[in-house]
Amino acid sequence: MRKKSDNLVVISGCSGGGKSTLLAELARRGYATIEEPGRRIVAAEMSARGTALPWIDMEAFARLAVSVSLKDRAQAPERDWVFFDRSLIDAASALHHASGDGLLYQLKTEHRYNPLVFMTPPWPEIYVTDNERKHDLTVADAEYERLLRDYRALGYETIILAKSSTSERADTILQTIAGST
């Protein structure tokens, strides 16, 4: 029998690796999706002229991301599969990186997700910066390596998605999780 947390599927990985586009495809196919907390926080902070932005105060930004991620997880619909664009682990990893906060290590047993985590690798050909993503690919690469390490340290199986079409990536995810139940 599946645990409730097993229906919570994380898509993480490199900034600019196609996660949001992939989530949009899964939503188009009728699945519940949860948007990336970071983008929502950046939009709200910029609108309010706040400073909890990754390029101004990474620790404050990460603390907000932890809070938003906890709410997202708690409010996830009770559906067969719910797909998250990043997760509490991404936020805790960023917070640990920025401040040394130990929340990340508590997530080995608390606030679990499906044991399979899908990772979008660095993909220079599609990487772009914008008003909400100001860091370059070098920073995104380092973040990706940190997330791979942290997810694996917490006992998750990381599956690196091929640099293929959005439809093919969605098919891979759906086939993989269907085969794991």
From TrEMBL:
InterPro entries: NadR/Ttd14_AAA_dom, P-loop_NTPase. Residues 9-169 form the NadR/Ttd14 AAA domain. Pfam families: AAA_28 (PF13521). It comes from the Bacteria. This is ATPase. It comes from Agrobacterium bohemicum.
